[in-house]
Write a structure and sequence with these properties.
5-stranded parallel sheet; 13 helices; 398 residues
Amino acid sequence: MLKGKTVLLGITGGIAAYKSASLASLLVKAGANVRALMTENAKNFINPITFEALTGHKCVSDTFDRNFEFQVEHVALAKEADAVIIAPATANVIAKLAHGIADDMLTTTVLACRCPKIIVPAMNTAMYENPVTQDNIEWLRHYGMEIVRPANGHLACGDTGAGKMPEPESLIEYVYKSSAFPKDMEGMKVLVTAGPTQEGIDPVRYITNHSSGKMGYSIARVCMLRGASVTLVTGKTALKPPMFVDVVPVVTAKDMYEAVVLRSGEMDIIIKAAAVADYRPRYAAEEKVKKSDGQMTIELERTDDILGYLGAHKKAGQFLCGFSMETENMIENSRIKLEKKHLDLIVANNLKVQGAGFETDTNVVTLIGTDIQEELPIMEKEKVAGCIIDRILKMKET
């Protein structure tokens, strides 16, 4: 996702510097060209050789080092950078950046950068909560830098509180958000539904389906990475929700229906990727199950038609995308649904192909519109999500 991107990783003199090695490794695995810059104090916590081995580049700390690759190295690095992340960022370096002090290789380079800058404060709780530090952090926000809120926990100094550096797996998401994609969806509001719904039969059993939520979660994440403000209405899944997305958890089809109806009016794009249970028990809890001669009989009724409501109440300029899962006559049945529900686009899942459908990391789909039929090859669901969004944006432009 970061292939072809250059990320400057700044490491300052805090005990959390050891985590920066894991962050460097994750960035490299994501395809980024990682250039590490360390303050002199950071070398007391971790050796520069660690970052050189992980990134394949010289780890820079001396502004006047004559053994460099560029004529004016701090300027050349700044021009090359697509993103800067300083993790950990000490109170001292935060103060320098807030007031334009450039007295070492790290601060000099960051001052010359025009790319997005991500600052990860990590320090003693009292230092972090000191009004001077908080004022400096606010200045960095004022200058357009993104501040990652430190985690709470047991610190190396023995205190417990705010100031702990978040884990590298979370920090890389900030880099993805800043640099992975062009922000071609900035200013758009997107609602995505995902996962299965559950309709209770009794305190133990319920009606549901095999949906994992992976396709909907991938769509929500890609929209967020491309700059959209995303609301994810999701049934219960085993997935960790994407960061930087407003998550609305639901259980039943009625819960999802009400959550979608409440928010749909303000959305520019709505993508219903959830696999809603088609039926629910007809009666109240104590009447749902009828037992006779050891047999259990349940009377069912259709659940709320979310797409039907959205299609009937679609506002001007709003784009509505649905999904279909057909075991036969996939194209024909999907086109019927497209027209009946007043959709702009329908994504037809090919359940007969290996690597497609529920609970897989890949999918095989056909994008169908009034004058469109595009069959996509098997690919990872996040790439499928990107293709769906590309098609939606192209259709919105026409």
